[in-house]
């Protein structure tokens, strides 16, 4: 997994923004955190995408989510693609396989209850 912190745009009321590659889920991800209004000592996610398998398959998919909040460095798409390519030969271990199976069962339960 890779994770890069991005600079926030001036005037954006967020505490941090992150982008990266999650190899086990085969997805890029985007996160923006803000102060929790009910507890000023804690952060909560405003955006957290790329939490399911193959949700954001290209760097640009994650970058577009963060553009309203961040100043996006020109080289971030290349860095993310390099992060992904470094993991091409990596396979899931037993714990990752079980975690994916668990998430799939949860997702299946959720779709049945809708």
| Percentage of residues assigned to helices | 25-40%
In DSSP terms (H or I, runs of 4 or more residues), the helix count works out at: 3
Global morphology: globular
Q: Specify Rg, calculated over alpha carbons.
A: 16 Å
Average pLDDT reading: 92
Structural class computed from helices and strand pairing: alpha+beta
How far the N terminus sits from the C terminus, by CA atoms, comes to 32 Å
Number of strands: 4
Low-pLDDT parts are none
| Main sheet record | 4 strands, antiparallel
The succession of helices and strands, N to C, reads EEEEHHH
> Strands of the biggest beta sheet: in what spatial order?
1-2-3-4
How many separate domains make up the residues? 1
How much of the sequence is in beta strands? Answer: 25-35%
What do you see in this structure?
- With 114 residues, the protein is of the alpha+beta class.
- The chain has one domain (4-113).
- It is 33% helix and 27% strand.
- It has a four-stranded antiparallel beta sheet.
- The longest helix has 20 residues, at 94-113.
